[in-house]
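Researcher: Let's try something more involved. This one mixes different molecule types, so please make sure each is placed in the same coordinate frame as the others.
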Amino acid sequence: MSLKLGVPSKGRLMEKTFDWFSQRGIGLGRSGSEREYAGYVQGIDNVELVLLSAGEIPRELAAGRINLGVTGTDLVREKLGQWDLRVRELALLGFGQADLVLAVPGCWVDVNSLDDLDAAAAAFRLKHGFRLRIATKYHRLVREFLRDNGVADYQLVDSQGATEGTVKNETAEAIADITSTGDTLRANHLKILEDGLILRSQATLFKSRVAVMDEDDRRSLAALLQKLKVD
Ligand SMILES: Nc1ncnc2c1ncn2[C@@H]1O[C@H](COP(=O)(O)OP(=O)(O)OP(=O)(O)O)[C@@H](O)[C@H]1O
Ligand SMILES: O=P(O)(O)OC[C@H]1O[C@H](OP(=O)(O)OP(=O)(O)O)[C@H](O)[C@@H]1O
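Model: All components are placed in one shared frame. Result:
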């Protein structure tokens, strides 16, 4: 068997992950044609690169199909219930930073906090006969956050992309999404609630707690982590 390392298959996360490993003496890269999802690992034996969508890496770790994986903390916490029983954080990688936030229309001058949102949500339901809609793809994290903060009178609507556009399109009144520069929120006339930070995320190296390893895998893992200076 070989130790399987799951890495995002495209974009900035992939490139920065390759850079991070390269700075520590491990060469990762894509091989084959530009469109072929095959990869190589240099500088260590018995480690296999598995190129995957960042969003699928949590599930693959939790199923034990990969031993190690790089993805955003937001995706692990959203996709895995009791995530810390299924994976272990080995290292924060210092890139891919994004904040998951709750935002409302900038013109809602009386709504600046979660308490204000709670009051607005109750008033909204009375006026419109349905619950205030929050668009997001982070269902688990948003539900837990609002439950912990005593906001109940809302409904989630699923939005898998262009989430900030849902308010203008009148399919939601508020949104919960990741932001890094804040440009997309500003361009869509949305403001973050002052206590609306749900999670700070960054790219992280995770280890599966359930993947089965033989003796060779254990040796490879120890050698890899030593090279990466991670324990
Ligand atoms: N500005 C940003 N926009 C989008 N994602 C960001 C940004 N900054 C950091 N990230 C992180 O990148 C990860 C998402 O990466 P990506 O969009 O490649 O994943 P994905 O949803 O699996 O993509 P796909 O399904 O298209 O392969 C998340 O962990 C997210 O927090
Ligand atoms: O704060 P900013 O720097 O403006 O970045 C935030 C935006 O980036 C992401 O979208 P992405 O472009 O990945 O597309 P998506 O809408 O499909 O998620 C995210 O969903 C926000 O919309």
